[in-house]
Fold this protein.
Amino acid sequence: MINAAIVGMGWWGRTLVEAIADNPSDKMRFVAGATRTVSDEVKGFSEQHKLKLYRSFDEVIDDSNIDAVVLATPHSLHVEQVVAAAARGKHVFCEKPFALTRDSAQEAVDAVRKAGVTLGLGYNRRWHPEMTKLRNMIDSGDLGVILHVEATMTFPNALFLKPDAWRANKEETPCGGLTPMGVHAVDGMIDLCGAIDEVYCQSFRRVVEVDADDTTSVLFRMKEGMSGYLGTMTATGGGFSFQVYGSKGYVRLEGMTHVAGASSEERRTRLFGNCIFKPIKGPAETWEAERLDVTRAALEAFADAAEGRGEYLIPLDEMVHGASVTEAIIRSAGSHKPEKVA
């Protein structure tokens, strides 16, 4: 059993705790928490879930009773927190995005390798049964030669951001919906299609009142030759689609994004909905996606890896590559040119 501390207790940090606590896990439990702002809501949540509440991250990693930290903190803090936790011998589960540059991601990976601890990353959609089916269809050749992969992810959350919220800061969340949503799709592309070679991004603000982009689109070229597209919007209705086109047909997965204000259970289990396989000949097959709490699945897989029960599903080199792609996307949005991924 892994004793974990949640660091960052905003709405998503609390969702991570609920994923384990609502139906107590036999692999992991949250015993402590830390956050920069200790509100009455945070105090009440801590009491409800019997969390020892710390005022600082250093207090958390100095506690010998804590085996692992789960980071639901701003992106800019991830690397220094991973490095510090690893130095204290703590396993680390880091919410996405892992880092915004390749070099910083590599620094964090080097630290966990040196310390011999486990690093987990919160791209939880990798664990969904429909992504597993899609991965198997690609690997088996059932879709033929892969031509193109694309995703669209939307939510209205930026319409409700206060100017002092960290997600309203362009330094923390460049390219609008890329870091809160789009990086999930980028990780899916890496998982299914391999390394990404080049990107082109356009990103701008249309309607939100805070100084943040609300409309972002990215073109990709993979090293294996297929193309890709990602669109994110943060000021419209919530939705998710992920589609892979092959020479024998395409698969489309539909669902939702993490819309603020939705129930914790809905955010964790309703990310996938209607699914379609359209072969080049014959009728389309449609089905409803299986339900799975992917947040819990990712956390329990992390606990298994930390206790030596198998490898975490996302390899460390893919974590670093994902950060390299994110860095290239942000660079392209500024240069208005295609950019190579390091």
